[in-house]
Amino acid sequence: MPDQAAPATSAKIAFGQGFLKDCWWFAALSGDLVAGKLQRYVILGEPVLLARDLDGHAYAVRDICPHRAAPLSAGEMVRDGKGGGCVVQCCYHGWTFDTQGTCKSIPSLTADQPMDVEKIRVRSYAIREQQGIVWIYITADPRRPAEPDHEPPILPGVVGGKPIIVETMDFDSHIDHAVVGLMDPAHGPYVHQQWWWRSAKKQLSKIKQFEPREFGFSMVRHKPSSNSRAYKILGGAPATEITFRLPGIRYEHIEIGTQQVLGLTCLTPIDDNRTRITQIFWSDHGLFRFIAPLFRFGAKAFLKQDGNMVNLQNEGLKYDRSLIWIDDADTQAKWYQQIKREWMQSRAEKRPFVNPVKATTLKWTS
């Protein structure tokens, strides 16, 4: 029977439900993966074995043995006695699978029981390791793991190598609510009231220029607001650009003369109701490394405060999921929904993505 065409991706996706597919999600930092160590992740509701083989190459396969459903991550990585390659051996019955998900051996078979074991496969995932980050490509159709038709983002500035700061927290939230909370410019004076960041009493009118970017948009490079005290610690005249890119990547690139700081925030869905937030900082600014403990403290405090607010929001969402969006403070949240819809429609219609965001100026008070 001839293969049927893969079903078109639905262009309809409700806010707070479902995930974007056929795109690159942050999976881990390069330093998180150790050769030969099997590690289990849950990404977009799917169990994933993400690891390095004994030769140091990163790979990702579905973390379920197709025989009796034991997690492959509970097994071990060994050398294939036949070809010398690396295989994962299931802890239950010893079945082995290579790093592409192909079954290589079934120990219980006897010599007179011929079987083409390589017809048995575990779902594999395309990954890219670049700039010290491991990205994973999750396809819309698990039966047809297509090759990616685009690459992960190349981040600006001094990215790569060991980060200076890494903070991770799981929010009890669908990724949509986590994303719009992250890009919300008006909650700062009420949620993040630290003396070292901004004054709760003094709010300023903000006027910021925005432009479209690949699969997203940027608040174009600007001088930080005078009520953002932490920037002043770096000295000089900092200028920052803040970019959001689908599916859940936000980065702030700060320049102080020839020196730079890059703060990256990645949102990765664990499942429908949990999102992992990973904040990472790199810098070649000598003072930043010196004051990194302060920034680490701030990042952790911000995440905790945002997480507490998510929990409060969940109390309301139990009873009413309808939300009111206003201009201009919620315009970025509107853009997020628009570019998500365009992503889905462009995939369904098999055409290039057309960014719906136009260059504009937004105003708000915070």
UniProtKB/TrEMBL annotation:
Domain Rieske: 25-136
Signal peptide per UniProt: none
Record's keyword terms, sorted: 2Fe-2S, Iron, Iron-sulfur, Metal-binding, Oxidoreductase
Entry's Gene Ontology molecular function annotations: 2 iron, 2 sulfur cluster binding; metal ion binding; oxidoreductase activity
Highest taxon of source: Bacteria
Gene3D superfamilies on file: Naphthalene 1,2-dioxygenase Alpha Subunit, Chain A, domain 1, Rieske [2Fe-2S] iron-sulphur domain
Keyword ATP-binding: no
PANTHER family: 3-KETOSTEROID-9-ALPHA-MONOOXYGENASE, OXYGENASE COMPONENT, IRON-SULFUR DOMAIN CONTAINING PROTEIN
Protein name (Swiss-Prot/TrEMBL): 2Fe-2S ferredoxin
